Amino acid sequence: MTTILHLALAADWDAAQTVGEYRVSTLGRTLEQEGFIHACADRAQLDGVVDRFYRGVTAPLLVLTIDPTGLDVRLEIPGDSAEAFPHIYGPLPVTAVLSATPL
Fold it and tell me: Which InterPro entries match (predicted)?
C-alpha cells in the first residue's frame, strides 16, 4: 500500500494542523468513539464512501492523501461490506498527510 485516502471536513483538518494530529474517524465520530480512523485504499473506494455517507454534506470536504509508513494501518472488512478498507489505529500525525485537496 503506497498511499491511502481519508475524507475530512476542511474545518477538522484545519484544527488538526494547529495541534499536530488528526483525530476524526469519520463524519461525526472521533477516533476515541470509533476506535480507529476510516480510510480508503483508492479513489474508487473513496467515491463509494462519498455516495453512501457524504451525499448531504454541504461543508467543504478534503481528500487527505496519507503515507501509511510507520502508522498502524490494518486492512479490515466492515460488517456491512464485502471489501477491505484500511483502518488507522491511533491518531494521524499531520506530517503523514502528503496532500489535502478539495473533493
Answer: DUF952
Domain span at residue 8 reads: 4-102
pTM for the structure as a whole: 0.94
C-alpha grid cell for residue 49?
Answer: 464512501
Instruction: Look up residue 79 and give its three cell numbers.
Output: 460488517
Q: Give the tens place of pLDDT for each residue, 45-79.
A: 999 999 988 999 999 999 999 999 999 999 999 88
- CATH code, domain carrying 68: 3.20.170.20
Question: What are the CA-CA distances from residue 60 to residues 1, 71, 78, 98 (Å)?
Answer: 27, 26, 26, 19
User: Cα separation of 84 and 87, whole Å?
Assistant: 9
Complete DSSP assignment for 56-100: T--S-EEEEEE--TTSEEEEE--TT-SS-EEEEES-EEGGGEEEE
